[in-house]
Design goal:
The protein has 163 residues and is α/β, with parallel strands linked by helices. It has a domain at 4-40 and 83-158: HUPs (Rossmann fold). It has helices at 13-29, 61-68, 76-95, 109-119, 142-150; strands at residues 4-8, 32-39, 100-106, 124-128, 155-158. α4 (109-119) packs parallel to α5 (142-150). The structure holds adenosine-5'-triphosphate and manganese (II) ion. Residues 1-158 form the UspA domain.
Length: 163
C-alpha cells in the first residue's frame, strides 16, 4: 500500500525523532525507506580557494548540477560530507531490517522534496514539524508548511517543537 516512504532530513534531532515513526510505518507496510537530505547552502569553490569555512560545503557548479540530476560527486570528501546528515537514520533503518535508499539533492528543500516524491513515486512522507532553523515558527517550519501544501500524498508530521 505504501511501497515507498520518504523521510526528509536536515540532520536535526527533530528529523531523528520523526524517523522513529518512519521506521515503524516502513516495517508495518514493508516499505522501502528513502532518506533524503537537501543541501541548500553551499559556497562556490572560486570564492573559497584560500578561506575554508568550517562546516560549510564547497560545491562547484558542476557538482550542484550533478546533485540536481540525482548523481553524487566524485570527490570522496565532499561525498562524505553530503551523506552525513542521512547517515544516522539510514544506519538505524538498515539495522532494523528496512530497505533504505540514501539520497542527496541540492536546491530549495521544499522544491526538491516535491520533485523527489514525483520522480520516485513516493507514497507517504514522514517529517518533523520543525528542523534546524530558528524556533520563530510556533506551528510549522517553512519546509514542512510548503510540503504540506504541495504534496499530493499523505504527509505525517511529527511534533518536534523544541526537540
Ligand atoms: P525554517 O527552516 O523555516 O527556519 P525549521 O528548520 O525549524 O524552520 P523546517 O525546515 O520546516 O523547520 O524543517 C521541518 C522538517 O523538514 C525537518 O524535520 C525535516 O524533516 C525536513 N527538512 C528541513 N530541511 C530539510 C533539508 N534541507 N533536507 C531535507 N529535509 C529537510
Ligand atoms: Mn529548516
Amino acid at each position: 500500500m505504501y511501497d515507498r516512504i520518504l523521510i526528509p532530513t536536515d540532520g536535526s534531532m527533530a528529523a531523528d525523532k520523526a524517523s522513529l515513526h518512519a521506521f515503524n510505518l516502513a516495517e508495518k507496510f514493508d516499505s522501502e525507506l528513502h532518506v533524503l537530505y537537501v543541501v541548500s547552502r553551499w559556497i562556490p569553490p572560486v570564492l573559497s580557494n584560500d578561506v575554508k569555512i568550517p562546516g560549510e560545503v564547497h560545491l562547484s557548479q558542476r557538482t550542484v548540477e550533478k546533485l540536481k540530476s540525482g548523481e553524487m560527486p566524485d570527490d570522496v570528501e565532499t561525498k562524505e560530507k553530503l551523506m552525513r546528515p542521512t547517515e544516522k537514520i539510514a544506519d538505524e533503518g538498515r539495522e532494523r531490517g528496512i530497505k533504505v535508499v540514501q539520497s542527496v539533492r541540492a536546491g530549495k528543500p521544499n522544491k526538491e522534496i516535491i520533485d523527489y516524491i514525483r520522480k520516485y513515486d513516493v507514497d507517504m512522507i514522514v517529517m518533523g514539524s520543525h528542523g534546524k532553523g530558528s524556533l520563530d515558527h510556533m506551528i510549522l517550519g517553512s519546509t514542512t508548511d510548503k510540503v504540506l501544501k504541495l504534496a499530493e500524498i499523505p504527509v505525517v508530521v511529527i511534533d518536534t517543537y523544541q526537540s
